[in-house]
Each structure stands twice: as structure tokens, then as C-alpha cells.
Automatic annotation (TrEMBL):
Full-protein positions shown: 1 to 297 of 449
Gene this chain is encoded by: ffh
Function: Involved in targeting and insertion of nascent membrane proteins into the cytoplasmic membrane. Binds to the hydrophobic signal sequence of the ribosome-nascent chain (RNC) as it emerges from the ribosomes. The SRP-RNC complex is then targeted to the cytoplasmic membrane where it interacts with the SRP receptor FtsY.
Assembly and interaction partners: Part of the signal recognition particle protein translocation system, which is composed of SRP and FtsY.
The protein's name: Signal recognition particle protein
Domain notes: Composed of three domains: the N-terminal N domain, which is responsible for interactions with the ribosome, the central G domain, which binds GTP, and the C-terminal M domain, which binds the RNA and the signal sequence of the RNC.
Recorded family membership: Belongs to the GTP-binding SRP family. SRP54 subfamily.
Length: 297
């Protein structure tokens, strides 16, 4: 389960706080030191942890809290509120154009992050909302990726546009949009190529796609299990091509949770959805408040 160890540690700290009755400033500071350690062990970025702890501390050591009847509860409430804030407070949706226009969504990410699977998951969500999505196979380097998209598209009942491996991704994107316009489809989701590491070619290819068609939303798919690497990847993609939001995959297998807690603060971009399993239905909207409750138990 996601956040298992962070959740366990925080619950221990809070059990001690609750049990104390009256609290001194030193008690709160000692507890926050433990919270800090727990967050660092969860692979939350150091800068984010420092800011988080000082924000909590500023609110938690005041007389209002110390003199209240349940100071432990108040500290926990403050931690909860700051966690929600850290993850962006509001739920952010993928922004779509009106249904009579074509919305172009570009999916980006490193190989293995779960991009192709997530592309099909998103298509299913949009279809359920009454949209008519078309998936476009722009990963021309791995024939298996095209095949995988076709299989997943079929499972979702969503058409897949492919031109094989011998065309430039930007040209495929353009042709896919034309195809959508002829066939009354109003969302085109571009599944782009991922590589093992970020490189110039990869970024240039994404820029070329953006120059060829009017991409309305660029969504980055990152693997939660890679922790701070996922956060760094998100920062780099945002600097190079500009992203509108992040989908965090494999949160079902991420016991630490550092990426979920750091990405918003480091990149300024919201987490839109979380991947909770391999099945095409395992994609959940991201709710910062529910996530904070999940962490605090
Ligand atoms: P791509 O290279 O980025 O297109 O990655 P794929 O879509 O091929 O996914 C790589 C692997 O991760 C596959 O085995 C997927 O089933 C798996 N995967 C994708 N998303 C999730 C998720 O949210 N949870 C889990 N447990 N596995 C996932």
C-alpha cells in the first residue's frame, strides 16, 4: 500500500502527542523532528521537507495551540492541513476544449513509466465522460509499443491511429488530428516515445510535435516508485517542453510516497491522476485531502 511506512511512523509520533495532554514548545519541536525524519525517509525532497516543517512549526508552537484543551489534536490538524497544501489543495482536471472542438493531449514520459498503459486508461475515462477519443501511436521506435496501444485501445473500445514505424512522430500527430476531424472524434491522445533517460532527441521530438499540432495539454507520466528521480524528471520535462500536469503511476507499489508529496511543490504543476495498478480501470483522480488522510491514517 502507498505510504505504508510514512503512515506508520507519523501515527506513532501522533500517538505520543495525543497521549501527553499539555504540550510544551519542546514537545512540539521534538515531534516535528520525528516528522521531518519520517518525510526524509519517505524520499521527500530535502527542500520541501524543510519548508514543510517550518510552516507547521510556525503555526504549531503558538500560545493558541499550547493553551488549547487538545494541543496534540491541534498539531495533528495543522500537519494535515499543511500536507494538503503541499499536494496542491485543489483537485485538478485535465482541461478539455468544448466538445465541438478537438482537444489534443500529448502524453510524455520515460520508458517504463507506464505511459502507454496510462494513455489507454485516460481514454477510458474520457469515453465515460461522453467524449470520443482517438489514440495516436507516435512511439515509432518500439513496434511493441504500437501493438500494446492497439491492444489496450481495443480493450477500452477506443480507436487507435497508427502509421507504423516509418513516419516522423510529428507527421503522425498531424495525420491523427486530420483523421479525428474526419471521423467525428473530439480528443486526440498522442502516445509519444519514451527513452531510458532524458536526452536531446527525445525533447526535440516532443517540441516538433508541439510545433506540428496545437497541443492543448501536455501530461507527464512518472513512476512513483522512483521517488525523487520522478520529481527531477518532472522538473526537467517542465523546463524543456512545459507540462500542464503529472500522472503518478505505480502508487500501489510505492511504500514511501516521496514523489506524491514533492512534485507539486518542486514543479508547480498539479498531479492529475494516480495509477493504482496494472488494470485499465486502475486510475484514480488525485484528491490532495484524501491523500493526506490516507497518509495520516
Ligand atoms: P511505457 O513504457 O511508459 O509506455 O510503460 P507501459 O505502459 O508499458 O508500462 C510499464 C509497466 O508498468 C507495465 O507492466 C504496466 O502494466 C505497468 N504499470 C503501468 N501503470 C501502473 C500502475 O499504476 N501500477 C502498477 N502496479 N503497474 C503499472
Amino acid at each position: 500500500m502507498a505510504f505504508e511506512s510514512l503512515s506508520d511512523k507519523l501515527q506513532n509520533v501522533f500517538k505520543n502527542l495525543r497521549g501527553k495532554g499539555r504540550l510544551t514548545e519542546a514537545d512540539v519541536k521534538a515531534a516535528l523532528k520525528e516528522v521531518k525524519m519520517a518525510l526524509l525517509e519517505a524520499d521527500v525532497s530535502f527542500r520541501v521537507v524543510k519548508q514543510f516543517i517550518s510552516a507547521v512549526q510556525e503555526r504549531a508552537v503558538g500560545q493558541d495551540v499550547m493553551n488549547s484543551l487538545t494541543p496534540g489534536q491541534m498539531v495533528i490538524k495543522i500537519v494535515n492541513e499543511e500536507l494538503v497544501k503541499l499536494m496542491g489543495s485543489e483537485t485538478t482536471e485535465i482541461h478539455l476544449k468544448p466538445a465541438n472542438e478537438i482537444t489534443i493531449i500529448m502524453m510524455a514520459g520515460l520508458q517504463g513509466a507506464g505511459k502507454t498503459t496510462t494513455t489507454a486508461k485516460i481514454a477510458g475515462k474520457l469515453k465515460a465522460k461522453g467524449r470520443k477519443p482517438l489514440l495516436a501511436a507516435c512511439d515509432v521506435y518500439r513496434p511493441a509499443a504500437i501493438k500494446q496501444l492497439q491492444i489496450n485501445g481495443e480493450k477500452q473500445g477506443v480507436p487507435v491511429f497508427s502509421m507504423g514505424e516509418n513516419h516522423k512522430p510529428a507527421d503522425i500527430a498531424k495525420a491523427a488530428v486530420e483523421h479525428a476531424s474526419k471521423n467525428d472524434q473530439n480528443v486526440v491522445i498522442l502516445d509519444t516515445a519514451g527513452r531510458l533517460h532524458i536526452d536531446e532527441d527525445m525533447m526535440n521530438e516532443l517540441v516538433e510535435i508541439k510545433e506540428a499540432v496545437e497541443v492543448h495539454q501536455t501530461i507527464l507520466v512518472v513512476d512513483a516508485m522512483t521517488g525523487q528521480d520522478a520529481v527531477n524528471v518532472a522538473g526537467m520535462f517542465n523546463d524543456k517542453i512545459g507540462i500542464d500536469g503529472v500522472i503518478l503511476t505505480k502508487l500501489d507499489g510505492d511504500t514511501r510516497g516521496g514523489a506524491a508529496l514533492s512534485i507539486r511543490s518542486v514543479t508547480g504543476k498539479p498531479i492529475l491522476y494516480i495509477g493504482m495498478g496494472e488494470k485499465l480501470s486502475d486510475l484514480e483522480q488525485f484528491y490532495p485531502d484524501r491523500m493526506a488522510s490516507r497518509i495520516l491514517g
